[in-house]
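User:
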Amino acid sequence: MRLTIIYTMCLGLLLSVGLVSAQTEETETRIGEDIFLAGGGVVHSETGVDDLFMAGSDLLVTAPISGTAHIAGREVTLRAAVGGDVYAAGENVNIRAAVEGDVTAAGYRVDISAPVSGDVRAAGSKVIISAPVAGYVALAGDTVTLNDLVTGDAAFSAATLEFGEGARVGGTLTVYTDSPDSVSVPATVAPAERVEIREIEQWTEDGNYIVKKPSLLTLVGGFFGGIAVVSVLAILLVAVASGPIARLRERALAKPVRAIWFGFLAMSVLSGAAIITAVSLWGMFVTPVAIVAAVLLGLIGYVIGAYVFGVGIWGVIGKSMSPAFLDKVIAAVIGATAVALLSLVPFVGWLITLGFVFFGAGAITVSMLRPQFFAAPAD
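Assistant: Predicted structure:
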């Protein structure tokens, strides 16, 4: 089940931060109207807070916030209203106060007993909804229990599905199960014409039930749109920094394997830095910077890699890269199109795309740092 896998991965990531923070003394940092809290047992009790970030062992929210709550820990309890969305992960996640936005939660036990004005997406061993939900719900777990009204649609994937006396679904109720004959939905929850029973494999096929599969027109439009975006970005880079890009291009084409290797190293350093800095308090602030830097290097690397590849193709067909701007535009379009087509190769397309990311990132790294490994000592 895709929802379960995604939430489990998120849970592991968030809890790793929470468990590390639990070993330190309680700390608090405010940036504008946002507050960052970390420690073993942490209580948020300050008013006038917009967005809330909490990590630790036992986390308790007793003061309302106007924005979004991001909470990861062992025991997570929300006892004050949230004006935005809630993202929570922990062994036990308890929502005991009203949420104006959406709730996304993962844990061993997820218990929502206060009204939610948006949607609820939750996964865990035990997931319990005991308060009205104004939007839709998508719940996955070993045991899923609904005790109150869901105004919108509901999608359940559970080994055991339970309905309390107050359970109601205003929209379509879809149950995903590996034993369709064993599922029984009381008419008081939803009439038979609004109940659908599907094989559990369809949970993934239905794109989480809420996400619609893109049409052929959308896929084709996205493909050519991606080519256009990469081409335009490459053209802008060449227009702004024609000389540096030309030198970068020549080095990358002269030693492509070297460029790919240094691209791998650069991306590994930035990604590793994001993980390593997370073990300290200040890492809470440094880690996002490292992540953003890695993403930017990857995106720019992809654009540069596509452009350099286009120049290489331009040379293979017997065309020399003249100073004329039109030639560079043509090379950018050729490269973007070629890389996009190669990404469609079954099974290995994503590896090819990753290779171009490393190629471009390595070209940037080599051009900026000029690394010299195993250089002969000067006489």
